[in-house]
Write a structure and sequence with these properties.
The protein is of the alpha/beta class. It is built from 9 helices and 7 strands. A 7-stranded mixed β-sheet has the order 2-1-4-5-6-3-7, sandwiched between helices. The longest helix has 29 residues.
Length: 279
């Protein structure tokens, strides 16, 4: 016959045991469902791993792409709240803010929404079907971020990506693709064919059919000289660079000619270069 003290001890142990089971299950669920949000594929470990986003990349620091920002904000909000949104192709000149905008969007929405963003590099495209199989049972909203994608005209990865994208659209409404590329239709050298005009036209239509899988195209172009200078001045102030406006302007013009670009990336590169010299 157990006394009251023994009974209370047993009850307490049972309660602790139940709590331990709950915590174990919760931790397992948390690990399996990648609660932390931003992930990348590790081909050596054959798994998705959490990574830290660059918190310095935010919408306020991306200048002269307001239309692109507004469209991507609205599309992302629609996806996270209702699911009925478009895949987005962000295409255009290098260094004009395509990748930064995607990361800034993640930093904006992660504050109030639970979702995953998975970054896929082009050389990892062969793993994409496997990654999607891993994610197919996830209940979270998932943005697949494909950075700097482009294909040669005879690239087998073109067919792989096109079929994967088409299949995902058909099967899983919780997954959306944000893809950046320097090419409007994701294909390099579309004009370089040594075939007859009929086959040439068929091939071009086939390549364009990939970009048609994206309901939204956002174009990014080199900035005008005036806007490039404004971006340089903005980041010089942001990083507290101690130079006169005239000196900074002269160096910015020289830098853009040397680098052959008026992009936002080159504006930041210049300011960081001058900061290093200053220190």
């Amino acid at each position: 016959m157990k006394n009251k003290f023994q009974i209370e001890i047993i009850k307490l142990l049972n309660k602790l045991f139940k709590n331990l089971i709950f915590v174990t299950k919760y931790n397992s669920f948390k690990k399996r469902n990648y609660i932390d949000g931003l992930l990348e594929w590790d081909e050596e470990k054959n798994a998705l791993l959490n990574i830290n986003s660059n918190k310095d990349i935010n919408l306020e620091n991306l200048l002269y792409v307001d239309n692109q920002k507004n469209i991507l904000i609205n599309n992302t909000r629609l996806f996270l709240e209702k699911g009925a949104a478009n895949n987005v192709l962000l295409w255009g000149s290098r260094g004009t803010g395509k990748s930064s905008l995607v990361i800034a969007i993640y930093n904006l929405f992660k504050r109030n929404y639970s979702f995953l963003m998975i970054e896929i590099k082009f050389f990892q495209i062969q793993y994409l079907p496997k990654i999607l199989r891993i994610l197919e049972k996830e209940k979270e909203k998932i943005v697949i971020y494909c950075d700097d994608f482009s294909f040669e005209s005879n690239d087998k990865n073109f067919i792989l990506f096109k079929n994967t994208l088409e299949g995902t659209l058909r099967k899983n409404q919780n997954i959306i693709f944000y893809v950046t590329s320097n090419y409007r239709h994701l294909v390099r050298n579309m004009k370089n064919y040594h075939i007859d005009e009929i086959n040439k036209k068929d091939n071009i239509e086939n390549f364009i059919s990939l970009s048609d899988r994206f309901g939204i195209w956002l174009g990014f172009h080199n900035f005008s000289k005036e806007n490039f200078l404004r971006i340089v001045f903005f980041y010089a102030k942001f990083y507290k660079l101690d130079l006169s406006q005239k000196t900074l302007k002269d160096k910015a013009i020289e830098w853009s000619l040397l680098r052959g670009s008026n992009s936002g990336r080159e504006a930041v590169n210049l300011v960081r270069f001058l900061l290093a010299k200053e220190n």
